[in-house]
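URGENT: need a sanity check before tomorrow's submission.

F., can you look over the Ribosomal silencing factor RsfS record below? I want to be sure the sequence and structure line up before it goes out.
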Amino acid sequence: MTATTNGKEMAQIAALAADAKGGDDLVALDVSEPLPLVDVFLLVTGRNERNVAAIADEVEEKLLEAGHKRLRREGRQESRWVLLDFGDLVVHVFHEEERVYYGLERLWKDCPVVPLEIPTPATAD
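Structure tokens as predicted:
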């Protein structure tokens, strides 16, 4: 079993939104094999609590604008690890310390990576 097209498209929307707010180290994992109710985990790192909250808010806004329904949101008040559950996609926005401590990449290391297309900023000559 592999992630659905819908899950991959949602991950791309979320990744672009996270990138627009300064999200770092974006990784999308196809977790459809071990978790049949979820297709993709998107992991994002924010620099501080304010940045984590801004990233989570932007991701949520863009996915809602695209017509996707949020099922659950956790951690927004503390903004150290915000989880956004959109069914096929679960977005984890971490503060740097929480990302290292919980190490979701290690837990899901056997899951394939879903490619994301993040445009690189143009550099001034």
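My own read: The mean pLDDT is 93. The chain has one domain: 5-108. If you see anything odd, call me.
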